[in-house]
Amino acid sequence: MASVRLVALKAPYVPSSLRNLSNFLLLRTHAFTVRDFSTAMSPPSTAVIYDQYGPPDSVTRIVEFSPVELKETDVCVKMLAAPINPSDINRIEGVYPVRPQLPSVGGYEGVGEVHSLGSSVKDFSPGDWVIPSPPTSGTWQTYVVKDQSVWHKIDKGTPIEYAASITVNPLTALKMLEDFASLKAGDAIVQNGATSIVGQCIIQLARNQGIHSINIIRDRAGSDEVKEKLTKLGANQVFTESQLEVKNVKALLADDIPEPALGFNCVGGNAASLVLKFLRQGGTMVTYGGMSKKPITVSTSSFIFKDLSLRGFWLQQWMTSDKAKECRKMIDYLLSLVREGKLTYEMELTPFSDFHAAMDKALGKLGSQPKQVIKF
């Protein structure tokens, strides 16, 4: 920045008859000067907030926020889209391990367009598409102001629903595939909760690496259609839980599929036990969710004679351990797969004006629904 040198000038003589007018003009000039160099302000924002923990359909409300002053390193982002994730619901309910300070704006990930910049921001321009990376709370609002370090610029050719939802679920899938076993083409994995977004991503990411996937789904109406959808995504085998009520589940494996070295559990209870039954000697099961709210029960023989390992994974813990650079590199890779048509999952874009209807769908009030993504 060029330096500015201030030079004191001797004030000229002003006749007394003109001094009042001179002072008036001087004050006017000073006012315009201050205004010209004042800090930028964000536009007013509309947000979904909650003042207490509880059922999201009861405790959330929509409010208007006044403009916010931008600090030197702040970026004001006009939000384009943000998903409603199960973890968002858990935060509002107060049952998530990390509780935001109340009152709080909902939402944890999303995508937006740069609207305005603090005076010292150089790496972004108005119109850039950005996502918070690692994710940050408060994305369910029309304008978000946060420090430039929060934002990661992405390719504007990405569909907004995928840009908005790429971090929490797809990144979980990719990180788990990479971290817990040295998999190579021809190996196999097994998972329950295969219809979840993470499950769908695991199927496709495994397929892209030449890894076989064995998938377990709930017994429910339309299971044949579900199997067909997962097979189209790249699933090698799909079983309902009742199909695995046999003494030797490994006898059900296709001839070209080896015993899996790695398993993923997001359900718990019996569904977790089924994953363990498939694992080979020395295999590992990674738990990243517990949708059934039932504990994992493991036989003693699984530890002693099969030497199985049980691990857990929590994406937020990994992302907050100084992994921003690695996180962003993996996100760029996942977004490239989306643009190439190699990674897809079902979502529904819902206008922000219909937020409460989208929340009802996310809560399962209307039966099984696609992931809800709010479009601002």
UniProtKB/TrEMBL annotation:
It is an enzyme of class 1 (oxidoreductase). GO terms for molecular function: enoyl-[acyl-carrier-protein] reductase (NADPH) activity. It catalyses: a 2,3-saturated acyl-[ACP] + NADP(+) = a (2E)-enoyl-[ACP] + NADPH + H(+). One of its GO terms (cellular component) is mitochondrion. Gene3D superfamilies: Medium-chain alcohol dehydrogenases, catalytic domain (3.90.180.10), NAD(P)-binding Rossmann-like Domain (3.40.50.720). It is found in: Mitochondrion. One of its GO terms (biological process) is fatty acid biosynthetic process. SUPFAM superfamilies: GroES-like, NAD(P)-binding Rossmann-fold domains. It comes from the Eukaryota. Its EC number is 1.3.1.104. The keyword DNA-binding does not apply. Keywords: Fatty acid biosynthesis, Fatty acid metabolism, Lipid biosynthesis, Lipid metabolism, Mitochondrion, NADP, Oxidoreductase, Transit peptide. Belongs to the zinc-containing alcohol dehydrogenase family. Quinone oxidoreductase subfamily. This is Enoyl-[acyl-carrier-protein] reductase, mitochondrial. The lineage of its organism: Eukaryota, Viridiplantae, Streptophyta, Embryophyta, Tracheophyta.
